[in-house]
Amino acid sequence: MKILFAPIGDPSGYVSVEYLVNGKGPYNTNASFIAISQALKIDKLVVYAGLSLCDTNCNDYKCCKDSVTQKVAQKLGNEFDLLIAPNIYGTRFIQKDRKNTLYFNFIYFNSLKILEDNKPDEIYIDITHGINYMPLLATDAIRLATYTYIVENNKNGVNLTIYNSEPVTKGNQGPYAIDDIYSEKITVRQALSSILSPFLSSESKNVIKNKVFKVIRNKANSENVNTSSCNADFIYYIVNALSAGIFLYLILKKNEINSCLNVVENILGKLDFNNFAVQLNFENGKVIYDENIPIEISYIHSLLKVSNHIAQGSNKISEIRRMADNYSTSDSVKYVILNEISRIEDKKNEIPNSPTLYAKILSTNLPRICSADKRNLIAHGGFEQNVTFLWKCGDDICVSYTDGKCDCIENVEKQLG
């Protein structure tokens, strides 16, 4: 399955010329993405146009949507899926905070839905016809969606390729070369590392804590949504657990991860193209998007999406082994976890049928329950002996940070913070 995404500007000036795609052709068309689609035999073509193409006589979203659809179809036809994104343009189309974050969030959220529905092996982006910030933001948003899709589907070896054409000059029919300017074959590990990378700086943490979650809380409170389990500290517990391969924490927190995901998805859901719910204010010849959604909310959504998927395993040693094989951020992390699992399995005959502190099973002197050491927690793949409880589950071994009486999860979070 092959999908091609193409952000465009105003197509009214596009003229038919000849294109060569990776040396193949020529293809006579007024849009490079049509030539790419023909040359590569693309299965699904998605075009992102800007809402700023809206007719000046419109005074509501439906009129704008219909106006843009008609303009694009008249010039480029309709042999593709057209999604109309809330872009900014000049002083007429603006966000109330004077930023352009809705465009990024819209493309990320809708591209992810398209990828999830179609499950492609090859993903292409044509940046030829985008203008100003559009190609950059669209590319970053689609890449984030691609990384999320790859981890969600545990899909190694997905190809992502970006195309661009030589500039078309007036009066010259070409042929113009369209070449891939960037290409990579993405693994689950690469995708997961890319999803985590925006969180790995103190500056990012401050932005998320002091800016983004302020927006999340305000929006949730206005809609009476409970955010008690969804805060910046929890996000960074997840980030550090994923980075270090502390999969047991994710498993034990799967309900909270899902609840937090629902809070964030409720915000981004306003940008769903099929149920677009961003309030537009038409006043004095301007169109103002009455919404403030920072770009970082898409990053948080991506993190929670993949964490929610990974956390669906059970708290059995065999499941954590599978997670280590599939979702470790490095071989070092993977083999730390597998080594600890082997050590636990070597003690299988000594493991009771009821939850027992790992330190006690190891016959460690004076075990201190719920007193994890950060270095040991990470160095032992989450199986720190003073917070880990083990018991037999049939032929398998179950593991937790609680025995039903002593709950060490807060101590573990203290080390993950």
TrEMBL record:
Recorded superkingdom: Archaea
Domain CRISPR system endoribonuclease Csx1 CARF: 3-167
Name of this protein: CRISPR-associated protein, MJ1666 family
Pfam family, one: Csx1_CARF
CRISPR system endoribonuclease Csx1-like HEPN domain: residues covered: 336-402
SUPFAM superfamilies reported in the protein's UniProt record: SSO1389-like
CDD domains the record matches: Csx1_III-U
InterPro entries documented for this protein: CRISPR-assoc_Csx1_C, CRISPR-assoc_prot_DxTHG_CS, CRISPR_assoc_ribonuclease, CRISPR_Csx1, Csx1-like_HEPN, Csx1_CARF
TM ranges: none
